[in-house]
Amino acid sequence: MAYFTSNTYTLKRKILTYTNKISKHLPKPEKKFAADITYGMLASGSCLLTDVVDQLHEPSKKINIADRLSRHLDKGTPAPAAASYLQQVKKMAPANPVIHIDDSDVVKPDGYKFEALGIVRDGSESTATKNVYKKVCHVTEACVLTAGSHPVSIFSHIHSSQEKDYKSANTITFHAMEQGAALFGRATFAMDRGYDDNKMFLKLDELGQDYVIRLTARRKLLYHNKWTMATELRSRRKGKVKTSVFYKGKEHEAYLSHVKVQITASKKDIYLVLVYGITGHPMMLAANKEIKSKDDVVRVARTYFSRWKIEEYFRCKKQMFQFEKFRVRRLKAINALNFYITLCMAFLAMVSMESETNALKVSRASGSGSGQSVLQTVSSALSWLFQ
To answer: What is the pTM of this model?
Structure first.
């Protein structure tokens, strides 16, 4: 128990310093709210406002404090805070950042009063004879890998096709790409098969960005002036470059090959990188970075396989902060709550990158007691997500 109180105080001060940087251009009540909601969620490990209130230990009635937090969320995400947050993230990213874009769902099976909930087919529970539909909101997330390879969000938007003036999911994805390009100038976007779409390739070319996108079996490529199925090119070659990659929580031995091709979306040369030995059918990756050596081929493959980190990011968000259990109903408020969860996730990444995490490691061996909840939550989140 030695130094535990000091460690708790240090961490609380660190959270306050962090939120002050984000809310520095906001009015005083908004600054207090940002500090309260961020600290409360980190301390409770929950995004439920009642749980947050329990950690604030204010003398007012619980319902009054919850109402105050709810009113602030109803105002939406403050633009100055969002801009300040992005500048903090920019400092954490390396010179040549990798950005992962992916979609997830927020399932609200018993939701009747939530704004703009959509109905979609659940592929994991549906069968050939029965379709299962669930009430969801979609989440489009773009995470940059920091210098310590921690995923930190630069774009997170909850949307639904039931919204008024809703255009398309592609439009939201394009906003994520534009935000990444505006923030870093040039980055490498890594995306899964769901983004094998000519519109995605054209948008990234328009923005002047690099990319590594996994292709589907339907993709045709121009090879030696002839349109050829990507699967046919895959079958003609064998992996000659051996390397280790991290996939689905385990290290795997992979064999890589590559060939210069063109994609239907443009007449620009790109590379088809083939990854053998990981899945039943070799993976096909489209990359527009120049490949001159074996190291370049390995770098492309590892860039794609680093995308498991955004999967872990979603998992931590939903499990550590009980993201799917939120009770705010308006979509504007839901997105504001999502923004403050994003602040919490970025704080975890920031703390894990600093040498002071030794204090957190000490706390794991300590027993429970008054004032320790925030330290325990942050500690367990760090060990689960980032170590």
So the answer is: 0.84
